[in-house]
Amino acid sequence: MCGNNCAFILVLFILLVIVGCGCGRAFC
Length: 28
Fold this sequence. Notes:
This protein is mainly alpha-helical. Helix content is 54%, strand content 0%.
């Protein structure tokens, strides 16, 4: 996960924004 850390966080952030910050409030 170290190599794709940036991409992983970006995808997670986009997914959370689409869902409405329901799964991870740490990004809000």
